[in-house]
Amino acid sequence: MKNIKLLTLGLIAALFLFAACDGDDDNDNNGRIEGYVPEEIIVNFSDGRDYNTTTQYNFEYDEQNRITQIIENHSWGGWRYIFSYKENGQMEKYIINLFNNNGTSGGTMECPVTYEGQIVKFRTKDSGPKEKTIKIDSHGRAVSGTMLLDYSSYIEAFSFKYDKAGRLSKAHNRQGAFYFKYDSHPGIWQNVNMPKWFFANFINVSQTIIGLYVVDLHNKTMLNWQNNLTEITWNNEYDYRYYTSINYTYNTNGYPSTAEWGGESNKYEVSIRYKQN
Predict the structure, then answer these.
(1) CA dist 260 to 71, 219, 224, 227, 231, Å?
(2) Which pLDDT tens digit goes with each residue over 97-113?
(3) Of 9, 95, 165, 167, which has fewest CB within 10 angstroms of its CB?
(4) Is the pLDDT of residue 255 over 90?
(5) Residue 10: pLDDT over 80
(6) In Å, how far are 34, 76, 104, 123, 185 from 100, measured between CA atoms?
(7) Of all residues in the chain, what percent carry a pLDDT higher than 70?
(8) How far is CA 82 from each of CA 97, 98, 100, 126, rounded to the nearest angstrom?
(9) Is pLDDT of 253 > 90?
(10) How many other C-beta atoms can be found within 10 angstroms of the C-beta atom of residue 91?
């Protein structure tokens, strides 16, 4: 079956840390509007030569501002992500459906979510990692975990750290580490009520979860749940350092309406439309 991407995110993004802030967080939330959530995100990519793509993401929510569906549209078709929840508010499972632009289905993957104290597990029934185990802290944030790949018995380990405001400041695995910085504006996802561990572990949808190889849409916007990501520094295992910055324009409510990163080659331009849920 055609490769079905796992929404990390972001979520990575997911990419993709959509939850509202803790009461003791000391980040600047001036101008926050309750129920103000992203309805559509459009991503334009250009390699500066002859390759240009547009990806459109549409989001649906329940009455508690939890995401119930994401539709990711490409020129050839796309992915539909469907989320369901238990009565106690915990995520029960997510379903990923691959569809083609001729209306046919390319396959469906169902991913149950189980909770064992401070341990959360994903078990996939099809392509992608067979199992991912996440340890969460008292705030519900992911602090460490492991991932068993489907094509081998290899287990990938990873960890996360947070700043005093509760924002993800570092993500690390054997290939290296990402370091993150933010602005002081209300985050794109600030009012979206999703588990904090979920989008910390879905910040990369184009590689296996937390592959930490690709810096893309879900690395740069799925982390914007309190404030908005402005800088990423990557130090890899060979002491190579990669740096990128993200520039925003803001709407009259103070939330990002556009984001841009990259140069003449590999340039991303993102537009965000909101609704009052």
Answers:
(1) 22, 13, 14, 16, 12
(2) 899 988 888 888 888 88
(3) 95
(4) yes
(5) no
(6) 36, 6, 5, 25, 38
(7) 73
(8) 8, 12, 17, 16
(9) yes
(10) 20
Q: Is the pLDDT of residue 27 over 70?
A: no
pLDDT in tens, 151-206: 556 677 888 889 998 888 888 877 788 888 899 999 888 898 888 777 655 543 32
**Domains observed in the chain:** 36-276 (2.40.160)
- Whether residue 209 contacts residue 219, with contact meaning beta carbons closer than 8 Å, is answered with no
pLDDT at 254 over 90: yes
From residue 67, give the alpha-carbon distance in Å to each of 84, 205, 231. 9, 17, 26
Residues 188, 19 contacting (CB under 8 angstroms): no
Dihedral sign for Cα 31, 32, 37, 40, please: positive
What span, in angstroms and rounded, lies between the C-alpha atoms of 114 and 111? 10
Enumerate the β-bridge partners of residue 221. Answer: none
CB neighbour list of residue 152: distance below 8 Å, 6 or more residues apart? none
When computed from its CA atoms, the radius of gyration of the chain, rounded to whole angstroms, is: 17
